[in-house]
């Protein structure tokens, strides 16, 4: 139920036979198809690094002039804003296309599918009690069924050939050339992308992200105790009730609660794989 959270509409327990209750689950059995959304891809090979370095040099002078009058956070925001604007200005971007099609469906298989559809329409028009006994209808129906089975075999063959091309390296490629396509296939083969489903603790239901994080936090804290406070010299004494969980200042691991605090703006800056960009940024912060 946790891994298929989006497919479960409702679940409840109803009285059953004798002392055995019945669990009733309303489940959506329709398959979920994950489509890839268009995204912007930076083209670092076509970037104008000289212009980017000039802009970062100006930012360096601006930061030096404001170092005595502005706080560290203000100076850091100036740097991140300038770096983000420079990356968008001097690095061209392209929009990735959606990959909704199946790569193992070749044009030859598509032609067979169109031919199958035409035969199906002809068969459906002649599907009457009078025409079913004729030789023309039986031959047309046999041709449609044979073509349908042939298409299924070709799709299976194309699918496994595609999988083999992902896991089997090509002789001319290096050992890392096919890893990107392989992990892309694995990522798009996920059955459900839902995280933690709705939690129920002591009869209370938690649906929001913060409430679920707090419930898990309390559950995890309940299994940790402070050894310095709960340690006793006599090990033969009966088991004592667990101590209260340590606060966030202790050394006990703790699951942090979610809050509305936004991540730092530096996370929005793409990481260009270029020595020129790294050199300019390091000089600016020096």
Précis, in short:
By secondary structure, this protein is mainly alpha-helical.
Count of individual helical segments: 8
Q: Biggest sheet: strands side by side, in what order?
A: 1-2
Averaged pLDDT: 75
Largest sheet: 2 strands, antiparallel
Shape from CA axes?
flat
What is the beta-strand fraction? 5-15%
SSE string, helix = H, strand = E? EEEHHEHHHEEHHH
Poorly predicted runs of 5 or more residues: 233-237, 239-267
How far from one another are the termini? 52 Å
- Helical content band: 40-55%
Number of strands: 6
Rg calculated over all Cα atoms: 31 Å
Backbone structural class: mainly alpha
Distinctive features:
single chain, flat, 286 residues, two-stranded antiparallel ribbon, two-stranded antiparallel sheet, mainly alpha, 8 helices
SSE blueprint and pairings:
Blueprint: E1 8-14, E2 22-27, E3 40-42, H1 49-65, H2 72-90, E4 93-95, H3 107-125, H4 135-167, H5 179-188, E5 199-201, E6 204-206, H6 209-221, H7 227-230, H8 275-285
Structure explained in plain terms:
By secondary structure, the protein is mainly alpha-helical. Among the domains are: about 45-100, no CATH class; about 100-190; about 200-230 and about 240-255, no CATH class. Helices cover about 45% and strands about 10% of the residues. The chain contains 8 helices and 6 strands; from the N terminus they run βββααβαααββααα. It has helices at about 50-65, 70-90, 105-125, 135-165, 180-190, 210-220, 225-230, 275-285, and strands at about 10-15, 20-25, 40, 95, 200, 205. The strands form 3 sheets. It has a two-stranded antiparallel ribbon. Strands 3-4 form a two-stranded antiparallel sheet. Strands 5-6 form a two-stranded antiparallel sheet. Helix 3 (about 105-125) packs antiparallel against helix 4 (about 135-165). Mean pLDDT is about 75; it is low at about 235 and about 240-265.
């Amino acid at each position: 139920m946790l891994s298929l959270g989006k497919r479960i509409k409702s679940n409840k327990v109803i009285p059953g036979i004798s002392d055995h209750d019945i669990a009733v689950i309303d489940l959506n059995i329709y398959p979920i198809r994950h489509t890839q959304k268009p995204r912007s891809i930076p083209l670092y090979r076509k970037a104008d690094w000289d212009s980017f370095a000039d802009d970062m040099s100006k930012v360096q002078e601006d930061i030096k002039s404001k170092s005595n009058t502005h706080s560290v956070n203000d100076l850091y925001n100036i740097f991140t804003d300038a770096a983000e604007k420079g990356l968008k200005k001097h690095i061209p971007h392209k929009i990735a296309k959606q990959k909704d099609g199946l790569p193992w469906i070749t044009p030859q298989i598509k032609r067979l599918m169109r031919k199958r559809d035409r035969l199906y329409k002809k068969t459906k028009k002649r599907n009457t009690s009078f025409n079913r006994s004729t030789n023309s209808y039986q031959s047309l129906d046999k041709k449609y069924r044979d073509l349908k089975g042939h298409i299924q075999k070709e799709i299976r063959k194309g699918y496994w050939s595609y999988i083999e091309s992902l896991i089997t390296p090509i002789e001319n490629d290096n050992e890392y050339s096919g890893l990107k396509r392989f992990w892309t296939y694995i990522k798009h083969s996920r059955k459900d992308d839902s995280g933690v489903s709705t939690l129920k603790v002591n009869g209370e239901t938690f649906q929001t992200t913060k409430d679920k994080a707090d419930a898990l936090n309390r559950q995890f804290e309940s299994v940790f105790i402070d050894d310095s406070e709960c340690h006793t010299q006599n090990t033969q004494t009966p088991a004592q009730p667990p101590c209260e969980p340590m606060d966030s200042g202790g050394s006990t691991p703790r699951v942090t609660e979610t809050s509305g605090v936004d991540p730092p703006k530096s996370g929005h800056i793409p990481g260009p794989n270029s020595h020129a960009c790294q050199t300019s940024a390091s000089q600016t912060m020096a």
